[in-house]
Here is the input.
Amino acid sequence: MAEELSYVIINPYTIYKSRTGGVLARLLTRTSLDLVGAQMFAPSQALIDEYAQNIVTEADTQDRQIQELIRDYVKENLAPDPITGLRERVMVLLFRGENAVRRIRETVGTFKKNFLGGESIRDTYGDIVYGRDGSVRYFEPAVLASPNIEESRTKLKIWARYSDTDGGLLEKALPTVTDPRHERTLVIIKPDNFKFPSGRPGNILDIFSRTGLAITAIKVHRMTVAQAEEFYGPVRDVLKEKLAGTIGERSRDILSSALNIPIGPELQTQIGGLLGPLAGEQQFNNIVRFMTGHTTSETSGEGRNEPGTEKCIILVYEGIDAVRKIREVLGPTDPAKAPPGSIRREFGSTIMVNAAHASDSPDNARREMGIVKIRENNFKSLIESFYRD
Here is the structure.
């Protein structure tokens, strides 16, 4: 059966209420589809007008009144503020796989009058409240998704056309941007969270939402070997130096036991100095392999710049004291030393396989954003290549 491309748009209200993680967790666990792309948008009036024109259709089996409510909701809540001109933030997720459109639609759900439950995303996070006269008093769809394959194609092409102008790393999207304490920080949800379909990526986003910070960029990324080497380059020499002492001690114990040779402090230091750099280099290669699926020795030439086999999600969080707030909920590098409730305590297993990365300073955040090219996104190219006529 042929693969399909489908999407979910997470509405501004859902983002404001920090429900993004819960939505993502349900999409990943209930559809078992491959999350292949993601991008933040600050939609222009032109984008919303064009998208809204394609919402009410005969091909949609959903009640006509609901379709019209969704169209009016989009025009009112996703468009720029008509007075201030400020734009809203929405997140668009791309999923690929067999029956992707149907699976997404079933997981998102449709509204039914007088239905109470939590089976679908809209059951849990959306609302439709009727008055006694039957009129709709309140409507919040939580997310948007396509009802059929043809509409998915039409609407995704619309979002792709506006990807360069309305999407990417959103600039001046928050009221605190002029505050000297305002910061941007980079977060990577690491490959260990994508080994099999699970709610882990969404659950991690849930914990990050405790900070009250705003997501202003997101993309699905496969790090290249060259990027991994540059990204983790600062720890390379640290590992060599740090492991010298540990390797010296272990070598002393092994040699003394196996060969019955006494190893004094001076010889122990010499052995550590000799083997420590080798152990550090091996540990660095393990990090590169973990993030990309390849090691430095396995790649050369142009292969170093090819996307790896391991998937991660890269995000930018913004707000007051963003670096400190993100690192507090992330926890220390070693999950065993992380406090209960922190991301690394809940989802990490070792110093390397520790669920997520976060920048440790604003300067490093800028350096890391440049390495992973946060302003570049495969969102548009994925759609264009999938629907290439």
In short: The domain at 3-169+376-386 is CATH 3.30.70.141 (Alpha-Beta Plaits). The two ends are 19 Å apart (CA to CA). The chain has a mean pLDDT of 92.
